[in-house]
UniProtKB/TrEMBL annotation, chain A:
Protein's name according to its UniProt entry: Peptidase M48 domain-containing protein
Cofactor(s) needed by this chain: Zn(2+)
Keyword tags: Hydrolase, Membrane, Metal-binding, Metalloprotease, Protease, Transmembrane, Transmembrane helix, Zinc
Annotated family: Belongs to the peptidase M48 family.
Cofactor notes: Binds 1 zinc ion per subunit.
Transmembrane residue ranges: 29-55, 275-294
TrEMBL record, chain B:
Phylogenetic classification of the source organism: Bacteria, Bacillati, Actinomycetota, Actinomycetes, Kitasatosporales
Protein known as: CopY family transcriptional regulator
Entry-linked Pfam families: Penicillinase_R
Keywords: DNA-binding, Transcription, Transcription regulation
GO molecular function, one term: DNA binding
GO biological process: negative regulation of DNA-templated transcription
Species annotation: Streptomyces phaeofaciens
């Protein structure tokens, strides 16, 4: 049984590569759904597997075995394997819960502050302008939706580009992209390999909003230029965090601009098929996890004398 | 963009567009100047109506300008609270998780690439 429970722990390491492929080969809005559902399932299978490992270890303790009404010793691989696995799994789960809880607390507080301040002001439509020398813009979800834009951002863009920016942010709010980003955040705390996937999901959300904005304005090139100009305007102020990324790699902004400038081509069926490798990987992981957990449950019932082997 | 399409847009979006022009300008604008800054097919009277509505809401102030008014955004006391909200958000480096930002940080390679793209566009 332990071998099957290892599958959901190992398969997420394939996710970052496969997620990139999914985003490259599907329409951004579709890719966002596929990616988010996949990482949530991968994370769930991973947590279930870790949980089963912890329980196996706990039921090895005589006191807990009595409490669990075990009449026979639990059949499991040797203690040399089960005990370290259980200890490691407990450590990993505790760490996940801790980082997730902290992240949720910090973000909920920031979000609440933003909301109360935005609600306090009378709004011009959905726009909330912040007088600041730093160019910045973001969609603020909640009821009603808001677009928060700094004066510096408004001044760095031309009239048509401002409309492009608004269309982009409204697309985020309309499609509820914050749910996807929150799901990606939760998954990232469940398995270290799902961290890079979180960045892919962020990029997918931005791409989806870009395409929706291009649809609204009817001009892909305009969106591309608005993004490029906004990014460069933000760059004149010194970067807030140290930049360890090598210059050769391409960040998310140029990828979005390049994608918008490229003609929107139809995607061939063969290319689309490889996009679903991530789904296949997820299904495999969930299946292995489920079989592993069901198997563990069966072993516990045997040990409780409720079922015969 | 055609007149018909702009006139049909939700009132909130039009108000936001007008407000953006006023904030970007940094000095009082007449309805005519706002109309030019909008880059859309809105009629001047429509722009004037939106400005009056914004004035009634207390979002813009106006001063006499010839026979009409020139409008400018209100730097209200809540302007301070808005700034506070902004710094609160700035403190969290990974706030993109719930708030989808328009543009992320660039690395030096990105900057070069983007400048090339923009220059290519202006040529």
């Amino acid at each position: 049984m332990t071998a099957l429970l290892l599958v959901p722990l190992i398969l997420p390491f394939l996710a970052p590569t496969l997620a990139r492929r999914t985003l490259d080969r599907l329409a951004p809005a579709t890719a966002l759904w596929v990616l988010t559902a996949s990482v949530l399932a991968l994370a769930g299978a991973c947590v279930a597997a870790l949980g089963a490992m912890v329980l196996t270890g706990l039921l090895k303790l005589p006191a807990l075995a009595t409490l669990g009404e075990l009449v026979h010793p639990l059949r499991a691989p040797s203690d040399y394997l089960v005990v370290p696995a259980a200890v490691a799994a407990t450590g990993v789960l505790t760490l996940s819960v801790w980082t997730l809880g902290r992240s949720a607390f910090v973000q909920a507080r920031a979000f609440r502050t933003a909301r109360t301040q935005a609600d306090r002001r009378p709004a011009a439509g959905d726009l909330c302008v912040v007088d600041s020398p730093h160019p910045d813009a973001y969609a603020l979800p909640g009821r009603p939706h808001r677009i928060v834009v700094t004066t510096a951002m408004l001044r760095s863009l031309g009239p048509a580009e401002r409309e492009a920016l608004f269309a982009h942010e409204r697309a985020h709010n309309r499609a509820g992209h914050h749910y996807f980003l929150a799901a990606a955040e939760i998954a990232a705390h469940c398995h270290p390999a799902l961290r890079p996937t979180r960045d892919t999901i962020r990029l997918a959300a931005e791409r989806a909003a870009d395409e929706a904005a291009a649809e609204v304005t009817g001009d892909r090139r305009l969106i591309a230029i608005a993004i490029a100009r906004a990014a460069l305007a933000g760059h004149t102020s010194p970067p807030v965090r140290p930049d360890f990324a090598p210059a050769a790699t391409t960040g998310p902004v140029p990828q979005r601009v390049t994608a918008l400038l490229a003609p929107s081509s139809g995607r061939s069926r063969a290319r689309r098929r490889t996009a679903f490798l991530l789904v296949a990987c997820t299904v495999l992981s969930v299946a292995a996890g489920t079989v592993g957990v069901v198997d563990f449950h069966h072993e516990v019932e045997i040990a409780q004398g409720e079922e015969s082997p | 963009m055609t007149d018909a399409r702009d006139e049909r847009r939700p009132a909130g979006e039009l108000e936001a567009a007008v407000m953006a022009v006023l904030w970007a300008a940094g000095s009082p604008l007449t309805p005519g100047r706002v109309q030019t800054g909008l880059d859309s097919g809105l009629a001047r009277t429509t722009v004037a109506t939106i400005l009056i509505r914004l004035h009634e809401k207390g979002l813009v102030s106006r001063e006499r300008h010839g026979r009409g008014y020139a409008y400018f955004p209100v730097q209200d006391a809540p302007g301070l609270t808005a700034r506070r909200m902004h710094t609160e958000l700035d403190r969290d480096t990974d706030r993109e998780t719930v708030l989808a930002r328009f543009v992320a940080q660039l690395n030096p390679g990105d900057e070069k690439l983007l400048r090339r793209l923009l220059e290519g566009d202006e040529r």
